[in-house]
């Protein structure tokens, strides 16, 4: 009969690997034993460990960690897609971020990953009609992580926000699957209009640090937005745009820019 460890490795390889990495971390740095046990080894599943982590980050004098833990647990029990997306985001971070060497790092340390999972909780609450609680989660994410994502925004799976400081995503923004963005990115509006006013980011897009994408425009799949660019018009698929305002400077350079994370402009010139 297979051991419990072997069974876990077969049924849930991501969680099994995180637990193994936690044990290794304790052996290398015993002072991390308490954090690794309370954050990972004490829990029976990935989603329970994640719920514990998010509840600690969102807790404040106004709402304690225990009630927040119950809210997150209830969300994960009611909507398995939240957990599936969290796993996809974790693997995406591991595969794309050169500073990420272990699966446990996003779960324990990376505020971009944690902020996105808190957004996903707020989005679920928003869809359930619990708007005040969703706004509370948005507020705490902004205060804790420096990331402001409206709970009504729609974000797909396999999303990585590296560093994540000062990221802003507006109410009617849509972000597809397998998108990568860096710090200080804004997906914003252009005025006081109240209808559909934010960008639509298709699958596989890479958005460089400090880029601003403004208005109800579409950024086509597998395109690149260079760091510091201000995008005010639609971006065709599989292209690279750069500048203020942004202009097409060439092709995307690869099939999946968000995975390769190649941000170097190689001799492109504006069209």
TrEMBL record:
Domain (Serine acetyltransferase N-terminal): give its ranges: 14-118
- Which pathway is this protein engaged in? Amino-acid biosynthesis; L-cysteine biosynthesis; L-cysteine from L-serine: step 1/2
Q: Which SUPFAM superfamilies match?
A: Trimeric LpxA-like enzymes
* One Gene Ontology cellular component annotation held by this UniProt entry: cytoplasm
Q: Its Enzyme Commission number?
A: 2.3.1.30
> Which InterPro entries does the record match to this protein?
Hexapep (IPR001451), Hexapep_transf_CS (IPR018357), LbH_SAT (IPR045304), Ser_AcTrfase_N (IPR010493), Ser_AcTrfase_N_sf (IPR042122), Ser_O-AcTrfase (IPR005881), Serine_acetyltransferase (IPR053376), Trimer_LpxA-like_sf (IPR011004)
Q: Which reaction does it catalyse?
A: L-serine + acetyl-CoA = O-acetyl-L-serine + CoA
Going by the record, the broad EC class of this enzyme is transferase
A Pfam family recorded for this sequence:
SATase_N
Provide this UniProt record's keywords sorted from A to Z. Answer: Acyltransferase, Amino-acid biosynthesis, Repeat, Transferase
> GO molecular function of the protein, one example?
serine O-acetyltransferase activity
Q: Which GO terms describe its biological process?
A: cysteine biosynthetic process from serine
Q: Family per UniProt?
A: Belongs to the transferase hexapeptide repeat family.
Name listed for the protein in its UniProt record: Serine acetyltransferase
């Amino acid at each position: 009969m297979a051991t419990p460890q072997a069974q876990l490795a077969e049924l849930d390889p991501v969680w099994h690997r995180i637990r193994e990495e936690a044990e290794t971390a304790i052996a290398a740095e015993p002072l991390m034993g308490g954090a690794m046990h309370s954050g990972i080894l004490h829990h029976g599943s990935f989603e329970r460990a994640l719920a514990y982590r998010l509840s600690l980050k969102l807790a404040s004098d106004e709402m304690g960690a225990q009630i927040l833990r119950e809210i997150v647990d209830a969300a994960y029990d009611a909507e398995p897609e939240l957990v599936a997306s969290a796993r996809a985001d974790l693997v995406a971070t591991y595969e794309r971020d050169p500073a990420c060497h272990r699966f446990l790092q996003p779960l324990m340390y990376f505020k971009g990953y944690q902020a996105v999972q808190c957004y996903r909780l707020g989005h679920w609450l928003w869809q359930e009609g619990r708007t005040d609680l969703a706004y509370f989660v948005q507020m705490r994410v902004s205060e804790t992580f420096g990331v402001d994502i409206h709970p009504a925004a729609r974000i797909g799976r396999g999303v990585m926000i590296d560093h994540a400081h000062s990221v802003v995503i507006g109410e009617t923004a849509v972000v597809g699957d397998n998108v990568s963005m860096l710090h200080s990115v804004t997906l914003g509006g252009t005025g006081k209009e109240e209808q559909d006013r934010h960008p639509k980011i298709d699958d596989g897009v890479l958005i460089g640090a400090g880029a601003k994408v403004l208005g109800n425009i579409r950024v086509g799949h597998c395109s690149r937005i260079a760091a510091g660019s201000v995008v005010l018009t639609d971006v065709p698929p599989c292209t690279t745009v750069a500048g203020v305002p942004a202009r097409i400077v060439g092709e995307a350079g690869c099939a999946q820019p968000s995975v390769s994370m190649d941000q170097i402009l190689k001799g492109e010139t504006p069209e």
